[in-house]
Specification:
By secondary structure, the protein is mostly helical. The chain contains one helix and no strands. It has one helix at residues 21-47. It is elongated, with a radius of gyration of 21 Å.
Length: 50
């Protein structure tokens, strides 16, 4: 018995599973802020808070 993957669904431009450009931009902004806080926190630990 062999496993055969399901056939790929056709790419529909109105596919509801794809996130909107606005949501992608929001997640990029959230990730950038998170990386900023992570970087400043690590820098603060390394420099002793000075």
């Amino acid at each position: 018995m062999s496993y055969t993957p399901a056939p790929e669904e056709p790419t529909d431009p109105k596919n509801p599973k794809r996130p909107t450009n606005t949501r992608i931009a929001i997640w990029i902004g959230v990730a950038a802020v998170g990386l900023y806080f992570l970087g400043t926190g690590i820098f603060g630990i390394l420099t002793g808070g000075n």
